[in-house]
Amino acid sequence: MNPGNDLDGAEGRPSAPIMRGGHLIQEARLRAGLSQKALALRMGTSQSLVARWEQGTVSPRYETVVRAVRACGLDLSVGIYNYDFEADILIRDRLALSVEERARTMVDHVNRVTQLLATES
């Protein structure tokens, strides 16, 4: 599977972006306001290894990702659920519009919601 290709899903449907372990570690570290060195100290490892995880040059094991996230004071939850391909298609279609078309669509939606709210009150 090519994570850069948006049509790698089943039956030619768009696939979800793949979240790598290093990205999860970096996200947790940034949310916690930690430097790579501070996270490394909490985990008993080196700053250079944390950097390699985050850059994707080394893939951390799942257990390591969980340990890193917890060292940031957060927790990681993983679940399996039915994927909603319709959202990907909608996003892809909206991004194909020009900025002006997207703005016009947004204004149209706001006007419709405003009208709906006015009829309810």
What CATH architecture label of the largest domain applies? Orthogonal Bundle
Q: Examine the coordinates and then state which fold CATH places here, giving the name of the CATH topology of the largest domain.
A: 434 Repressor (Amino-terminal Domain)
| CATH homology group of the largest domain | lambda repressor-like DNA-binding domains
Query: What would you report as the Rg, rounded to the nearest angstrom?
Result: 20 Å
The average pLDDT is 87
Helix content: 55-70%
Total strand count, please? 0
CA-to-CA gap between the ends?
51 Å
Return the structural class: mainly alpha
Q: Tell me the series of helices and strands, N- to C-terminal.
A: HHHHHH
Strand content: under 5%
Count the helices. How many? 6
Given as residue ranges, the uncertain stretches (5+ residues, pLDDT < 50) are: 1-10
Rough outline: elongated
Please report the first level of CATH classification, the CATH class of the largest domain: Mainly Alpha
Number of domains: 2
Largest sheet properties: none
Concise overview:
The protein is mainly alpha-helical and 121 residues long. It contains six helices and no strands.
Notes on the protein architecture:
With 121 residues, the protein is an all-alpha fold. It folds into two domains: 17-71, lambda repressor-like DNA-binding domains (434 Repressor (Amino-terminal Domain), Orthogonal Bundle), CATH 1.10.260.40; 85-120. It is 60% helix and 0% strand. The chain is built from six helices and no strands. Helix 1 packs parallel to helix 4. The radius of gyration is 20 Å and the shape is elongated. Mean pLDDT is 87; it is low at 1-10.
